């Protein structure tokens, strides 16, 4: 019986480990500054008014998956107009050299309230 318990536990851990991407493993975590026709502008979410932060343009295509508070790209602009500093976790298809995300296509975008 102990063997079956261990086998069940192993099976459960495999299923849990194969779930959706962990937001803490995202290629970028920050805030959405602007929604454009086929891209979003994002930056750091811990903004110090005395510092400057890079702004990244993330391209969106028909295969980009949205989840969290917004499940469709066309609803994103309305959502960020209602929420102050929405949080975004995103994964890009190809980070390029040095893990660059600017002007890359998003594979998955998770949008949350602050």
Automatic annotation (TrEMBL):
It comes from the Bacteria. This is DUF3221 domain-containing protein. It comes from Filobacillus milosensis.
């Amino acid at each position: 019986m102990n063997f079956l318990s261990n086998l069940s536990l192993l099976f459960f851990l495999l299923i849990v480990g194969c779930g959706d991407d962990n937001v803490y493993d995202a290629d970028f975590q920050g805030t959405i500054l602007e929604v454009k026709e086929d891209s979003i502008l994002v930056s750091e979410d811990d903004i110090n008014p005395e510092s400057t932060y890079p702004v990244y343009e993330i391209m969106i295509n028909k295969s980009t998956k949205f989840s969290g508070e917004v499940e469709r790209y066309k609803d994103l602009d309305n959502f960020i107009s209602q929420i102050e500093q929405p949080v975004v976790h995103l994964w890009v298809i190809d980070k390029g050299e040095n893990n660059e995300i600017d002007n890359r296509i998003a594979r998955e975008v998770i949008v949350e309230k602050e």
